[in-house]
Description:
By secondary structure, the protein is mainly beta. The chain has one helix at 2-5; strands at residues 10-14, 19-21, 25-32, 37-40, 43-45, 52-58, 62-71, 77-86. The protein has a five-stranded mixed beta sheet, with no helix packed on it. The longest helix is centred in the N-terminal third of the chain and has 4 residues, at 2-5.
Amino acid sequence: xxxxxxxxxxxxxxxxxxxxSSDRSIMVQGETEPETHVSINGTEVMANGKGAxxxxxxxxxxxxxxxxxxxxxxxxxxxxTRHVVVRQKLTTEAGSIQ
Length: 98
């Protein structure tokens, strides 16, 4: 009964809350319970048989909000939200990266 009434376990390993990156591709990695549906920003992501998942998201400069949801077949959902700031790489006239 507990398995039906409780929402699924959800752990997001990456990214960490408040991460800053200069890369416009953000790796999202985590783990939930087997046979649980995972979605990231509304797009379904496949988890393996043990519940592990990972995918890359395209990000934009500035603040990016990443919402990861795990939903059991009986409708119970766990959601984790992370915020990542993407900053443009600055180049000088000589072409070096700062």
